[in-house]
């Protein structure tokens, strides 16, 4: 099927994109990689009157360390995130996440900002951003503001973005001493959406976990924090694998993932419990031996 008729404009700045969104009055869509939008348009599940191409906005794809944080431009391609030495040495969870998104063709085109702004609960970056406590820079006619990941994802495909706002940058605090992170995904086949996936960030000191953040992919309409598991992990010795797995297994408590062709709800809950244990174990290993395992795969693919 062909998309419905639409007007196309390529903008040279985020400010111009915001102006075009305002002109479209709710009937405009932003185009970055197009890996989700174009298929929806072909199926006529999305019929924007105006398509606003962001790909000519200069300087919008950088990945840099600045002012004690990592800053990722919204137009950074998944392949760039996957290949980033800076991220591998600081937040390898981001490398994990991009590496298991779809296939190389999609990762060469798809952008991290598009993945986040689309807010599909089966997309991989939203849970990772929640676990990292990321902040998103949104730009619109009223100016620029920052929104925490916890406040950004509001409903199924629903975000805090205003009608004329554009996601321009992702900001994540640089990791402190003893920090480890990992993202573990289970998929039916390479390139598929997650049946279940878990993002884990831990801080280790004196051989014990001092803090933990776990977030779940595809466990509900928005990414979810596994707060019971987080609380249970605090104080656990890092050499007590059974205790780590037992605490991490609480990630399945209280979640009700949808049953679909990828599996039933109970099956997905069991997967989340097991994947949480694997993600925590990998994050702990990275916290203890950062340089040695920062680029190691925790069970996904490279």
Known CATH architecture of the largest domain: 2-Layer Sandwich
The Cα radius of gyration reads 19 Å
DSSP strand tally: 14
Instruction: Return the domain count.
Output: 3
Instruction: Please report the number of helical segments.
Output: 13
**What are the low-pLDDT stretches, counting only 5+ consecutive residues below 50?**
291-297
Sheet with most strands: 5 strands, antiparallel
List the helices and strands and how they pair.
Elements lengths: L6 E4 L3 H11 L3 E4 L5 H6 L7 E4 L9 E4 L2 E5 L4 H6 L1 H6 L1 H8 L4 H6 L2 H7 L6 H8 L2 E6 L2 E6 H4 E3 L2 E2 L6 E8 L5 E8 L9 E10 L2 E10 L6 E2 L1 H7 L7 H8 L16 H24 L1 H4 L9
Parallel strand pairs: 1-3, 2-3
Antiparallel strand pairs: 4-5, 5-10, 6-7, 6-10, 8-9, 11-12, 12-13, 13-14
Helix pairs in contact: 10-11, 11-12
Notes on the protein architecture:
- About 2% of the residues have low confidence.
- Strands 4-5-10-6-7 form a 5-stranded antiparallel beta sheet.
- It has 302 residues and is α+β, with helices and mostly antiparallel strands.
- It folds into 3 domains: 47 residues, Uridine Diphospho-n-acetylenolpyruvylglucosamine Reductase, domain 2 (2-Layer Sandwich), CATH 3.30.43.10; 111 residues, Uridine Diphospho-n-acetylenolpyruvylglucosamine Reductase, domain 3, CATH 3.30.465; 115 residues, CO dehydrogenase flavoprotein, C-terminal domain (Enolase-like, domain 1, 2-Layer Sandwich).
- Helix 10 runs antiparallel to helix 11 and helix 11 crosses helix 12.
């Amino acid at each position: 099927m062909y998309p419905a008729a639409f007007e196309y404009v390529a903008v040279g700045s985020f400010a111009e994109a915001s102006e075009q969104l305002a002109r479209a009055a709710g009937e405009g869509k932003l185009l970055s990689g197009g890996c989700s939008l174009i298929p929806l348009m072909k199926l006529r599940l999305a019929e924007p009157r105006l398509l606003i191409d962001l790909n000519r906005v200069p300087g919008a794809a950088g990945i840099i360390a600045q002012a004690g944080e990592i800053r990722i431009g919204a137009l950074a391609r998944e392949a760039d995130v996957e290949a980033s030495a800076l991220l591998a040495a600081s937040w390898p969870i981001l490398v994990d996440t991009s590496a298991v998104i779809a296939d190389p063709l999609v990762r060469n085109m798809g952008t991290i900002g598009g993945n986040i702004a689309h807010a599909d609960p089966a997309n991989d970056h939203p849970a990772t951003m929640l676990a990292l406590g990321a902040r998103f820079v949104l730009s619109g006619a009223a100016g620029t503001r920052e929104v925490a990941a916890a406040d950004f994802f509001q409903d199924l495909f629903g975000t805090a973005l205003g009608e004329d706002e554009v996601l321009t940058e992702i900001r994540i605090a640089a990791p402190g001493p003893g920090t480890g992170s990992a993202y573990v995904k289970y998929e039916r086949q390479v390139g598929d959406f997650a049946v279940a996936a878990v993002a884990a960030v831990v801080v280790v000191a004196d051989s014990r976990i001092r803090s933990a953040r776990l977030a779940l992919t595809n466990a509900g309409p928005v990414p979810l924090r596994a707060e019971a598991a987080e609380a249970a992990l605090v104080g656990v010795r890092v050499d007590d694998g059974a205790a780590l797995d037992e605490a991490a297994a609480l990630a399945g408590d209280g979640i009700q993932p949808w049953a679909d062709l990828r599996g039933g709800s109970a099956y997905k809950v069991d997967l989340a419990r097991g994947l949480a244990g694997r993600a925590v174990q990998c994050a702990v290993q990275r916290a203890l031996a950062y340089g040695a395992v920062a680029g190691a795969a925790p069970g996904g693919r490279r």
